[in-house]
Amino acid sequence: MRGYVLAATLLILGCSDWAANASPYATDDPEIIDANSWQLSVFSQGNTNNEGRSGTAVGVELDYGILPDLQAGVSLPVGFSAPNRDRTDLGMSDIELGVKYNVVQGTGSGMPQISFCPSVEVSFGASAKVSDVATHFFFPLWAEELWDTWTLRGGSGYRTNPAIAAEILFSAASG
């Protein structure tokens, strides 16, 4: 299994210039894919702290354009957890199901494009080390504005988290 993870990681790193120019992965963007079209994205992400490493070894996101201003998507990640001085656990992580609705069409002249993107993360993992043990709901608004060769993307939303009362998240990216 480690060989497959290593191969997927090398493939992703080999495409890093292409990936850096695609939509940001820590945030989302408000753009909707064309109706009756499919979009497949492969991703990986990780976190390191003084307790070890964890994240998504490899994940696949599949989106489908239902209508001109509406798309649906599913994300299937394989999570990993590597505590310091312990063995690495791999397994299916939380599955995300979501929709994206274009609320405001951007004009490129001061009016940003805005989309509402509710989603649910369903606990699917066989191990609490690579999956959450609760279902989460996320209700963000994502916005994007274009100026010549610059793009500013960002958003904020409300995320339910049974471990604490709730979280309000903010994220932004530019390029």
Structural features, described:
- There is one protein chain.
- The chain is mainly β.
- The chain has one domain.
- Helix content is 10%, strand content 54%.
- It is built from 2 helices and 10 strands.
- Strands 1, 2, 3, 4, 5, 6, 7, 8, 9 and 10 form a 10-stranded antiparallel β-sheet that branches.
- Strand 2 and strand 3 (70-83) form a beta hairpin.
- The protein starts with a helix and ends with a strand.
- The relative contact order is 0.16.
- The model is unreliable at 8-25 (pLDDT under 50).
Please supply descriptive tags for the structure shown above.
175 residues; mainly beta; 10-stranded antiparallel beta sheet; 2 helices; elongated
Radius of gyration: 17 Å
Low-pLDDT stretches are 8-25
**Biggest sheet layout:** 10 strands, antiparallel
The average pLDDT score comes to 78
List the helices and strands and how they pair.
Layout: H1 2-14, H2 16-20, E1 38-49, E2 52-67, E3 70-83, E4 89-92, E5 95-104, E6 113-116, E7 119-122, E8 136-147, E9 150-159, E10 167-174
Antiparallel strand pairs: 1-2, 2-3, 3-4, 3-5, 5-6, 5-7, 6-8, 7-8, 8-9, 9-10
Please sum up the structure shown:
The protein is mainly beta and 175 residues long.
